[in-house]
Amino acid sequence: MPLSDVEPRLDSANSSDQFVAYLDYYRSVVDRKLDGMSDAQLRTSLLPSGWTLLELLTHLVHMERRWFVWGFLGEQVAHPWGDNADDVPESPWHVPDDVGRAELVAALHAGGERTRDVLAHHDLAERAATGGRFAPDDAVHGTPPTLLWICFHVLQEYARHVGHLDVVRELADGATGE
């Protein structure tokens, strides 16, 4: 798994390879940004909204699984909204007291392995399966999205939340940069 602190510059026109490289990059940035923080720092919010660094990390773990495994593959997963209190969508992020950084970072990278497998074996134009996140006749969401749309969505989630992580890390101990 690449742990480069440099944005990927693949000389490839293969979009799947580009998504894999960028998602790996953002996962490694998350891991590095949390490195060296105490458990108390990881569990203390510095923001008016109240979320903590561990809550953001668990959100990223569950978000990627929600979109690629439950969403695209249509597989049933235990607690797809497990990053939310009481496993309810749109509720505040939550991390059980007995779950820590090491466990969540390992889950983040394990989820990345699963995403790499999905991207290696499916065409980006393929639509998400029904039966997981998407119902066959979903009046609200309509036709399930393509894998390409899911990749862009997950990539923007990582980019946005890594930006949040940058700010919170700077507030916590002054660390800046990648």
Automatic annotation (TrEMBL):
InterPro entries xrefs: DinB/YfiT-like, MST-like
Tree of life domain:
Bacteria
Q: What Pfam families does the entry give?
A: MST
Q: What's the protein here called?
A: DinB superfamily protein
Organism encoding this protein? Krasilnikoviella flava
